[in-house]
What we know:
Elements: H1 2-47
Amino acid sequence: MNESRNDSKLSSEALEELAELNTRNDVITFLMWIGLIEAGVYLLKSIGYGI
Length: 51
């Protein structure tokens, strides 16, 4: 009984770590998209399309 409890405890900790990693990846992806949009707007402005 105790062994199964330890296993579930370990798996829940691993799941929490995975969730944290996923949020970090989402934040990084979000920041990358913002960067791409900013770069695109800058390029359009430099070409002459006013936004």
